Amino acid sequence: MNIDAKNLREMSNVVRATALRMLYRAQSGHVGIVMGAADIVTMIYAVFLNPKVDRFVLSAGHGSALLYSVLKLAGYDIGDVDSFRRVDGLPGHPEFGLAGVSATTGPLGQGVANAVGMAIAAKHNETGGRVFCLCSDGDLMEGVAQEAVGFAGRYKLNNLILFWDDNGISIDGIAQTDVDVPMRMRAAGWTVKTVNGDNFDEIYDAVCSTSGGPLFIQCKTVLGYKTSVAGTSKAHGFGIDGLEFEKLIEKFDSKIGKDLWQKLANQNSGAGQKIKYPTIPNVNSFPETPDFISTRELSGLYLSHLAKKGARFIGGSADLSSSTNVRVDGMRDILPNNFSGNFINFGVREHAMAAIMNGLAYAGIRPFGSTFLVFSDYMRGAMRLSALSGLPVVYVLTHDSIAVGQDGPTHQPVEQIAGLRLIPNMNVFRPCNMAEVAYAWQTALSEYNRPSCIILSRQKFIQIKGTVFGQINHGGYIIYKPKHGRIKMTLLATGAEVPLAVSVAKRFGGGVQVASIPSVSHFMAQDAKYKHAVLRGRVVAIEAGATAPWFALADAVVGVDGFGMSGPGNQVYKEYGFDPDAIFSAIRGKIKNGKL
User: Fold this and answer.
1) C-alpha count within 13 angstroms, C-beta hemisphere, residue 87
2) What is the number of other CB atoms lying within 10 angstroms of the CB of residue 430?
3) For residue 346, pLDDT beyond 90
C-alpha cells in the first residue's frame, strides 16, 4: 500500500486519538510517548513491517497504549481497547500472548535485548525477516540494553533497526543518558542516522539506508507533543486534565486516517505469527557414569547424548562454557557471517544473555544458556520475564554452593536457589545423579510454557544409582530406605547433599530414610497421600543454601545462612557443618533435648 507523508500524518493522528481515548477511559497511563512517538510507530506498521516475517518490539513498554492503538487499527485481534488497564483487560505494559505483541516488556532495556534475540533467530532460520524496536531514553540507560547493544554490534545484525525516541526527558527531569549516545553506538558497531521523529521522509530514508550491521535511528521528538505539558517531565505520565483529553481526541481523530488504516487492516487479515517450537526427542537412556563425578559433568554427558539423538536447540554461555560443560560435541558457533550454528558465546553479559534467550524463544527457538549460580542475580530481571511470558528457556547454573571453595564468598551462592524457587512458573531442579540430571533436562525440554533452572555442582561427589524406592518425576522420592526398623525420621536433601544425607541415615542404624527432592515445586504439586508417604516421622532438610524455605516441609534444617568463606571447597563445606558425623550428632542432640 503506497502512502504519502500527508496520509501518514492522518494515520498517526488517528493513532494518537485512539490511544488518548484509551488512557482517558482508564484514567491511567503515559501520555508523553503516545503523542511524541506515534509518527515513528505508524511509519513502521504502515510502510515497512511485513507481519509474516518481521517483528516489532516496544522496549519502551510504558507506551503500551500506543502499541495497542496501532495493532487495533492495523487489524490485529487484541480485544477491546476500552479494557485497557482494567482487570482481565489489556495490561498496562505489553504482554506476550496478545495478538501482535512480540515480547513482554516494561522493565526498561529488556525489549532491546529481546529484539537482538529475535534478529539472531531470523538469521538462523533464514526467514529474511527484520526486527524493528522502539526504545526510550530510559532503555538506553539500563545496563542490559548496553550489553545487548555491544553483542548486536559484534554479530553485525543488519536485520535489526533500533529507533530511539530521543525527547531528552524522563520522570525526574532531564534524561541522564550518555553525553553522546550516537558516538557510543558507532563505537559498538552500529550505523547511526539522526532524523526528526515527525518527519516521515527522513525516517523512510534512514530505514532504507544500507548498513553492514545493526541500524540505530536517533529520532528527535517532543515528549507529550501538542499537549499543554509538552517537553516537560509532567508529560511522561497522566499529566493532563479531562478537558484537554477531550479536545486532543477531537483534534486528532481523522476519518481519512481511519479509512487508510482499514485498508491496511484488510491486507493484514489474520496478522500475527504463530510460534511452533521444535519437538525434542524423548531420551530416557543415558550413558554409564563414574561413581564419583560432579553434576555439571553429568549434565554435559547427557546434553551430548541429546545432541547425538538430534535434539534441536541453541545453547550458549556467558564466557564460561568450559566450566559449565554446555559446549558439547556437535555444537557449532553462531558467527557474524554464519548463523547456521547452534552455540553462542555471549561474552560476560549474563543479563543480556537471559534477555536475548527470551528473544530467541519468542521467535520459536529452544534456547539454553549457562553461567555460575551466584551470577543468576545479574539476570534475575530477564529470568522473571521468562516465567511471566511462559517461555521454555533453560538456565544451566553451575558452581551451586559454598563447596565452590577458594573463589570465596563472592562466588558461593547461598540464597539464590531459594530465590529462584520463589519465582512463579519457574522449574528449579537440583539433581544428585545421572537419572535426576536426565529427568531435569527431559522435563525442561518437554515443557513449552515455562522456563527451567538446572542447578549443578562444581565438586565431584559419590553417586547413588538406581531409583528403586520411588519415582523421580514426582519431584521428590525415597532414594534410600533402611533395611529394618519402623521409619521414625526422613532426611530431605538435594544435589550434592543427598549422599551426605544417606551417610547420616546409615549412622542411625535403622528407622531413618532419605528423600531426594530434585524439584521442590513438582513435589509440592503431588497429592497429600504421596507427600505423606515421603515425609514420614520427624523431617530434617539438608541443603547447602538458605534454610528458611525448607521449614515449610521440615521440622529442622541443616543449611547455610551466612556468606561462606575462602578455602578449599571440602574444608569450607565441613566448616559449615556439612559432615555426616556433625549432622548426626546435631540431630541426636536435638532429639535428646526435645527440640526435634
Assistant:
1) 0
2) 33
3) yes
**Residue whose cell numbers read 549422599:** 499
Predicted pLDDT at 303: 93
Question: Which residues are part of the catalytic machinery?
Answer: 350
Q: Are strands 191-196 and 215-220 parallel, antiparallel or unpaired?
A: parallel
Residue 57 has pLDDT above 90, yes or no: yes
**CATH classification of 5-267, choosing from 3.90.870.10, 3.40.50.970, 3.20.20.70, 3.20.20.150?**
3.40.50.970
> Can you read off the three cell numbers belonging to residue 191?
550505523
297-462 and 472-592 share one fold: yes
Closest CA relative to residue 163, chosen from 120, 214, 117: 214
Provide the residue ranges of all domains of the chain, joining segments of one domain with +.
5-267, 297-462, 472-592
How many Cβ atoms are within 10 Å of 287's Cβ, its own excluded?
10
Distances in Å between the alpha carbon of 425 and those of 119, 381, 384, 415, 453? Answer: 26, 14, 9, 19, 11
Out of 14-23, 155-164, 341-350, 470-479, which region has the weakest mean confidence (pLDDT)?
470-479
For residue 283, is pLDDT > 90?
no
Residue 581: pLDDT band with limits 50, 70, 90:
very high
pLDDT of residue 467: 59
- E strand or H helix at 146, and its extent? helix 143-154
Strand, helix or coil for residue 253: coil
| pLDDT reading at 468 higher than 80 | no
CB contact at 8 A, 184 and 147: no
Asked if the model's pLDDT at residue 458 lies above 80, the reply is yes
In one letter, which amino acid is 162?
A: L
pLDDT over 70 (residue 270): no
- In sequence order, which ranges of 460-577 are alpha helices (DSSP H)? 497-507, 520-524, 528-534, 569-575
C-alpha cell at 559: 543449611
**What pLDDT, in 10s, does the model give residues 1-20?**
678 999 999 999 999 999 99
**First-residue to last-residue Cα distance in the chain:** 76
In which residue are the cell numbers 526427542 written?
Answer: 281
Rg (CA), the chain: 27
Q: Is there a contact between 220 and 165 (Cβ–Cβ < 8 Å)?
A: no
Backbone φ, ψ for residue 409 (5° rounding): -60, -30
Residue 363 is given by DSSP the state: T
Class of domain 472-592: alpha beta
What gap in Å lies between CA 252 and CA 236, rounded to an integer?
A: 19
- CA torsion sign for 562, 459, 570, 574 is positive
Does residue 326 contact residue 353 with C-beta atoms inside 8 Å? Answer: no
Q: Compute the 3-state secondary structure of the chain and give helix, strand, coil in percent, each to the nearest 5.
A: 45, 15, 40
- Over the chain, what is the mean pLDDT? 95
The continuous run of DSSP H or E covering 455 comes out as strand 452-455
Compute the distance between CA of residue 155 and CA of residue 165 in angstroms, rounded to an integer: 24
Q: Is the pLDDT of residue 393 over 80?
A: yes
User: What b/e readout covers 76-101, taking b as 16+ CB neighbours within 10 angstroms?
Assistant: bebeebebbbeeeebbbbbbbebebb
Whether 151 contacts 116, CB under 8 Å: yes
pTM higher than 0.85: yes
pLDDT at residue 284 is higher than 80: no
CATH number of 297-462: 3.40.50.970
Closest C-alpha to 445, from 378, 384, 518, 365: 365
Q: What angle do CA 523, 444, 366 make, to 5 degrees?
A: 160
